[in-house]
């Protein structure tokens, strides 16, 4: 029996950061700066950046990349943020981006989960038209 | 021993749709229309919408909502798209949005995973300043 090797199209890092610096989580300019820096650290080319500050507290933002994205939603009052890093290549250094985010928000607790997205058989790779 | 009940801040649906209609996955206007409709179907209030078409093939897009987002990355040549629905409330009807996406892209195969984001102890709920 010949086993067919499988490849993946995307690597998705689900990052939970807790016990962070509350003020930094509520500073939309700071949050945007760090998320853009994280994308650049990972070697990603940015196409769009959208960040919003809430009147009460909290920041929501996205950094868009070709077939990839980084998102963040912050709850400063709880010292918590939900971060996602979806990249379409194994070669990007997502863990450098994760380390930067943990450090800059001064997270004392983190949880990292990696999800494989778009599992395809190797013999279908030849039909791929676009890579990132 | 008193058990402390835990609540979550976000519900994250990781949706893989395969064997879809290739043309629909490559039509940026159609993809944007469906993702916006999915957000509205789920009862979410949209703040920003960004969608891009690639020269070769494929669409990438995000629908931003307060403390929530919907993203999609499509590979039309493989009939595949990676979709994420992150919502900050249990009350939103994310599965109605999932059904709509599956139906409109004519997905013959789907995988759905639900991730609980931001688990907090019930006694910390009182410190929450913003809900969505």
TrEMBL record, chains A, B:
Active site: 68 (schiff-base intermediate with substrate), 73 (proton acceptor), 88 (proton donor)
The species this protein was found in: Halanaerobium kushneri
Pathway(s) served: Amine and polyamine biosynthesis; S-adenosylmethioninamine biosynthesis; S-adenosylmethioninamine from S-adenosyl-L-methionine: step 1/1
The protein's assembly and partners: Heterotetramer of two alpha and two beta chains arranged as a dimer of alpha/beta heterodimers.
SUPFAM superfamilies named in the record: S-adenosylmethionine decarboxylase
Modification Pyruvic acid (Ser), positions: 68
Reaction equation(s) it catalyzes: S-adenosyl-L-methionine + H(+) = S-adenosyl 3-(methylsulfanyl)propylamine + CO2
Cofactor note as given: Binds 1 pyruvoyl group covalently per subunit.
Site feature location: Cleavage (non-hydrolytic): 67-68
Domain of life: Bacteria
Top EC category: lyase
Keywords: Autocatalytic cleavage, Decarboxylase, Lyase, Polyamine biosynthesis, Pyruvate, S-adenosyl-L-methionine, Schiff base, Spermidine biosynthesis, Zymogen
Pfam families with a match to the protein in the record: AdoMet_dc
Role: Catalyzes the decarboxylation of S-adenosylmethionine to S-adenosylmethioninamine (dcAdoMet), the propylamine donor required for the synthesis of the polyamines spermine and spermidine from the diamine putrescine.
Protein name per UniProt: S-adenosylmethionine decarboxylase proenzyme
EC assignment: 4.1.1.50
One GO molecular-function entry: adenosylmethionine decarboxylase activity
Mitochondrion is among the record's keywords: no
PTM comment: Is synthesized initially as an inactive proenzyme. Formation of the active enzyme involves a self-maturation process in which the active site pyruvoyl group is generated from an internal serine residue via an autocatalytic post-translational modification. Two non-identical subunits are generated from the proenzyme in this reaction, and the pyruvate is formed at the N-terminus of the alpha chain, which is derived from the carboxyl end of the proenzyme.
InterPro entries (alphabetical): AdoMetDC_C, AdoMetDC_fam_prok, AdoMetDC_N, S-AdoMet_deCO2ase_core, S-AdoMet_deCOase_pro-enz
Parts forming coiled coils: none
Family statement: Belongs to the prokaryotic AdoMetDC family. Type 1 subfamily.
Cofactor: pyruvate
Gene Ontology annotations of biological process type: spermidine biosynthetic process
Example of a GO cellular component annotation carried by this entry: cytosol
